[in-house]
Amino acid sequence: MTNNRARQTLEIIMPYIKNKEVLDIGCLNHNMNMFEINPLHLEIKKSSSYCFGVDMEKEVLNLGNEVICADATRLEL
Length: 77
Known about the structure:
single chain, alpha/beta, two-stranded antiparallel ribbon, 2 helices
């Protein structure tokens, strides 16, 4: 993970995610027309026992089976 801000965020949230199930809302980087998985999401995935990602952009559908395209405010758990 190269972004210093993402590293700081990971240090803060680590006690809450380590070996726990995590719902990561907004798991894509939204940079102009380029959509890619957020590096922080990848680190959360490594540290948690299970990580499920949600993002509103349809490009998320190409990123694996543990990520869905949905509006998190309307998501039924």
